[in-house]
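Model the whole thing, not chain by chain.
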Amino acid sequence: MRATVLYAPGDVRFEERDAPKITAPTDAIVRLSATCVCGSDLWPYRGLNPVPRPTPMGHEYCGIVEEVGRAITSVRPGQFVIGSFFASDNTCPHCLAGYQTSCQHREPVGGAQAPLLRVPLADGTLVATPEVPPDDLVPGLLAASDVLGTGWFAAVAADVKPGKTVAVVGDGAVGLLGVLSAKQMGAGRIIAMSRHEPRQKLAREFGATDVVTERGDAGVARIKELTRGVGADSVLECVGTAESMRQAIQSTRPGGAVGFVGVPHGVQLDGQELFYTHVRLHGGPAPVRRFLPELIGLVWSRTIEPGKVFDLTLPLEKVAEGYRAMDERRAIKALLRP
Ligand SMILES: [Zn+2]
């Protein structure tokens, strides 16, 4: 098969690789209906994370089960399934507590920008849809694999509640789906922080009531102004830089919560400063598996349309163009069709 490999910053190749095989009785092989480029794929693409060796790329996936190992009981060939970027047994204490991305037996799922994918711990990891979906539902189901699940976790971690005021830092796909999640959870007011017109428009479609274009201290001041000097009850931090984290903490009212899901790059917190904010922090790699059944249900019933974040669709072999378009912010998120 041909699949995506990152050789060095800016050097994405679509090249011949061995097709994945069942290597453990708990594996499944999935033939992907769609995959995509993640914002986190851009860190090594931009040279901000090292690329020590040619690396198969991609960790967002949905598709049809092709083959299962002999220990698998919960999914079978022919079913349409969705899974998350960490495989998890879904039975250990951390999984049972809802933190499947900290599973005691977790394994990263990689190499999903390909026609075929091996998913370890398939019984715990994969969730099947009621039947094979119509094609127009595939982007939304793919979104559930990571970006929607991550935006949803940001909102859960930030303790979004009906009627409350929510601010979202970051206008990438995760931030935009954080807006959608907050709306779905009944937030009264949702302030999206974005200076890009097409993203502001999508944020409003997803439920944003206000848009703030300022950043840093000016962004914090604007949130304070919009909340009569109080700050937001819940803030979703969906970027992962020192500036965005600081902006999130300072935009939160005392007693409020920050849900942080941007992978931190250079974030340092000052204990003294944090102490006096009275802000709760919760975040980490989103335990998407916890939310998959509910999110699949919301997509299946067409209650939400998270697939709108894919504003570029390419055949998988054009994957390098997907990276370029996202790197240059010409696209919010690129969907790839094998
Ligand atoms: Zn586990």
